Amino acid sequence: MRLTSKIVFRVLNILVITTYVFFRIYNSLVVSPFFDNFDSPQYFKFSIFPSFRMQGITFFYSLIQNENGIVIFQTLLGIIVVIYLWSIINSTIHYNLLKFIFTILFFYFASSTVIVEHDASLLSESLSLSSAIFLFASTANYLLIKKNNKNIILLIFALIWFSSTKSSNAIISPIILLILILVVVRTFRKNLGVIISLVFCGVMVFLFLSTALSSNVTKTLTTSGTINNRIWIDEKWREELLISGYPNNSHEIWLAHTKENLGSPADQAVVDLPDFKSWWKQGGENFLLKFLFNNPDYAIFGPIALPLLNSEYNYKKTLLSGWSQGTDLTYDYEGFVNSKAPRTILWPDEPEKAYLLLGIIFISLGIFLMSFRFKSNSDLFLVLLTIFIIIIWSYPNWWFGSKPADMARHNLIAAVMWRTLFIVSFVRFLNIFRFKTLMNPK
Prior knowledge:
single chain; mainly alpha; 72% helix
């Protein structure tokens, strides 16, 4: 009887996964590829160094060239990493019914439009999100299943891929690499293969970090966006900005280009000003960094609680907005009108409900952390490490350029990972605390 039950649940899991695969492929075929006239062309230009866009994207885009071919590639890769993560967590669950509950919940979440829509987007989001999911899955594989040579090398590969897909990924990758070295050096310090892999990983991470920091085009635009969307509003911060030599008339020009189409985006119009270029050369390049050190309240609390520093701001200008609502290309882009992907209850449309859900996720993770502390050090470390990486990944995004219009897109990985971590922690919590006993109390 137990064997029959096991087979039934296995068949049901296979049906769910098969349905998900066909759905995601079908959805990518019925929408038109999203091509951003400003950003997308740069992803088709591959260069080892220097490179305006990250090599982990430009290599595949320049190799495939065809837009529909790229969409299929991104879709299949997204499917593979999602199933890989599912297989890792599923293998740690002891109860058949819980395995099935996890399968339903996980693939329901993975079918949401916030994830699926980027398969057809010719930007960095799809491949960078896939690399983040793969990194999380490889970390879970190492921590929860087995700490062996194969899994540590797989984790090293995951970090290399992750660092190659987005500038913000590359910037935090040295920190992740340092954590990785501290975790594994004691166990694998005499393993030549692992040591060589770590050295190679260090070289590649340095290459991608150098690429991320090499483009002045990105720096100028994000600086302009951050100043005009955020810093200019506060009188004290604006005064500090003007003292640095920032052109006083630039905000008026930015406002004019924001209100109507004058031939160039608002941030670009400011960057093109001779006075801005002069300010940039005379130290403006480092203004945002100096501003963070001069205003630690802004640096620490601004990303999540900006309205507490100045009531003229709202939470749409904070990370909580990006973490809570996700992107919605299906609404913004007419080429996605045929998309069948739902937002699902994990991505509410209304801001209030989205913030409430994010609060529930935070509280739940707190409960799981307290529980794992007494039952599973591996789960405890996985959750703490993931939260730490999400935060150190999100804060620089906000410090150096997440405008309200870009908040969701810039913080897509963090938004997805909060929910992924919640689902994984939830089923691991039930599995550790005797799910069978909960279902059949004596």
